[in-house]
Amino acid sequence: MPWIELSLDTTHEAIDWVRTLLAETLEIGDINIVEYTGLNQPHPVEQHPQWTFTIYLYLPLDAQSRTRVEKIVNLLSPLHRTGLTTTIQTTVVEDKPTDANGLNSRIHRIGKRFVVLTPDASYQSQTADEVTLRLKTTLCFGSGLHPATILSLQLLEQYIIPTMNVLDLGSGSGILSVAMAKLGANVLALDNDRIAVVATQDAVRCNGVEQQVRVMKGSLGSGSEMGHWMGGDIIDNVPSIKDTKTFDLIVANILARMHIALADDFQRALRQTDAHGGLLITAGFTADHEENVDKALTKAGFEIVDCKRLDEWVAFAHRLVL
């Protein structure tokens, strides 16, 4: 059966943006991500020192192909205009290639302990304290390849303590919820996007942490009034939790404007005990937003205790001030 192959090169941080945008195109059944080699683009003008991955998409060649391709090109054109991806190349192929050389079969290490794998990848742990995170290739944020996710995992590795009661706000693929559960925490995973909720539920089952993670469609406090975490549309009502002094730690890998708007909700939802000190981990923003995020959190009663950076991306750890 012939297929239309669409391909584009991306920067490090663009991978999850592409996947999030493509979640709107339900016709896509196959996505393959490989390390950038420079062979995809025929024109030197598009060569870029920071291209890191090439994405391949496959659509059946039929009467609807042209409409589907145009929809995908239009969805991703903003990323190309801002220099995050190349233009989309299209070609017709007789067969879809296997994923033998793709990232879906590749070991991806984060921090000192985390290893991201696909569900069926064969892997033998190298150390006794290694934590494996098995994830399907989904069209939602949280592949483990985006700098914001990497920084979040590095901070969680440092601050999660077993038996903590934690909130993953904007759970996406479920990678952070699974990581916290495997570090011993009890997790409430919230997202206001139905695709993300399904992906988180699938990740929880795949990693065998159902007893430690509860997945809900919803938001925290005023977040339900502010739209989709990633700027998309919400087509139905999203419930809001207004828990007070419930969580020992909250992690939120979402846009800067959401952190700023939810600063007081974060403060109300966190609790302080002798064992756990009301920690908030925020990520999903770049250095040009960090001052405003820190200012809003400081005003709400937090003090910064840690900060990690990767390229222009920033992640904070704040603690409630006694």
UniProtKB/TrEMBL annotation:
The keyword rRNA processing does not apply. The keyword Protein transport does not apply. InterPro entries: Ribosomal_L11_MeTrfase_PrmA, Ribosomal_PrmA_MeTrfase, SAM-dependent_MTases_sf. One of its GO terms (cellular component) is ribosome. GO terms for molecular function: methyltransferase activity. Gene3D superfamilies: Vaccinia Virus protein VP39 (3.40.50.150). Keywords: Cytoplasm, Methyltransferase, Ribonucleoprotein, Ribosomal protein, S-adenosyl-L-methionine, Transferase. Pfam families: PrmA (PF06325). SUPFAM superfamilies: S-adenosyl-L-methionine-dependent methyltransferases. One of its GO terms (biological process) is methylation. Transmembrane segments: none annotated. Belongs to the methyltransferase superfamily. PrmA family. This is 50S ribosomal protein L11 methyltransferase. It comes from Brasilonema octagenarum UFV-OR1.
